[in-house]
Amino acid sequence: MDGELARAPERPVVAQSGTPEALARRVFENLRLVVHAPEETLRLVVLCLLAEGHLIIEDFPGVGKTTLAKALARSVSCSFSRLQFTPDLLPSDVTGVSVYDQRTNEFEFRPGPVFANLLLVDEINRASPKTQAALLECMQEHQVTADGVSYRLERPFMVLATQNPIEYEGTYALPEAELDRFSMRVSIGYPPLAEEARMLTEQTGADPLEALRPVASGEDVLGAIEAARHVYVEDSLSRYVVALLRHTRTESRLYLGASPRAGIALLRVAKARALSEGRDYVVPDDVKEIAPAVLAHRLILAPEARSAGLDAAAVVGDVVERTPVPV
Q: I need a labelling partner for 130 at 20 to 30 A (CA). Which of 38, 86, 263, 318 fits?
């Protein structure tokens, strides 16, 4: 198989239990030990985990996209698989394949790398569209259907995908239906001078990723996910989210606005943000702070806006500013 299956070895969890707020802080601090990225980016990654969403890490080569994904996987004591997407990868290399067993004269399903709690899909846009489509059911319904039989994926389940936004040769752009299944998209960017100098010292010695230990168990994460789902959202705030979505659909600078699924993701991540800050209710700032990361990758700019050099995240920010906040 062209897919690389890498199961993380069992490691003892350094710190367990505690509140969801403490869990989010522990995972965030663990990521900081390895990844030199803006704090807000690392917080968004943790929020995506608590919202049980899927994440795209999109940035230039060599800034630590794969390192960030692997650091998150090592911070949680869950099963982990990695797939290096290549043009010759087949859908069965992702989901699994049925193999004929001569001893029993029956076909036996052998699960693929997708049967893990955390799945790293490296360079997701390098595989063909039919292989990319193998993730659609997994991401939306947390199951795999093969030969007419559906197999459930163990929770928590999270896909972390990386892609390079500037190299298009030999790549296949993700379809809108798949982009819409990713809860968030983040970028790392280049680190400040002092941070980059410290990173050079760390990475040319012992690999800090190898020393990273889990700070949360799978049960801890599931507990935090369930707690986030029960965070209170006032009706006026739900209407505020709907108003944001409708403004993107009528925005002249956008060819395609946000879908209802985008609104669900926005509210789930807002709940996770409230929980990470020790609140059991969502406030408008929770929605406003995460809106660009949750909505921008789902939108398609109108040709005039694209030619003018506008950015979808900037349009989302403008829509947020123009939408009345409930009081």
A: 263
- Tell me how far CA of residue 39 lies from CA of 83, 168, 187, 315, in angstroms: 27, 29, 12, 23
Angle, in degrees to the nearest 10, between helices 260-276 and 235-250 = 130
* Domain 231-322, second-level architecture: Orthogonal Bundle (1.10)
Q: What is the pLDDT of residues 281-310, one digit of tens each?
A: 999 999 999 999 999 999 999 999 999 889
What stretch of H or E contains 75? helix 65-75
Separation CA 222–CA 219 (nearest Å): 5
Q: Check if CATH label 3.40.50.300 holds for domain 20-221.
A: yes
Distance (Å, whole) CA 165 – CA 149: 37
User: Could you give the residue range(s) of every CATH 1.10.8.80 domain in the chain?
Assistant: 231-322
**304 burial level (CB within 10 Å; 0-12, 13-18, 19+):** exposed
CA distance 245 to 39: 27
Give residue-wise pLDDT tens across range 165-220.
Answer: 877 777 899 999 999 999 999 999 888 888 888 888 887 877 888 889 999 999 99
CATH 3.40.50.300 boundaries in the chain: 20-221
Only one residue has tokens 């039989």, namely 149
SS (H, E, C) 81-147: EEEECCCCCCHHHHHEEEEEECCCCEEEEEECCCCCCEEEEECHHHCCHHHHHHHHHHHHHCEEEEC
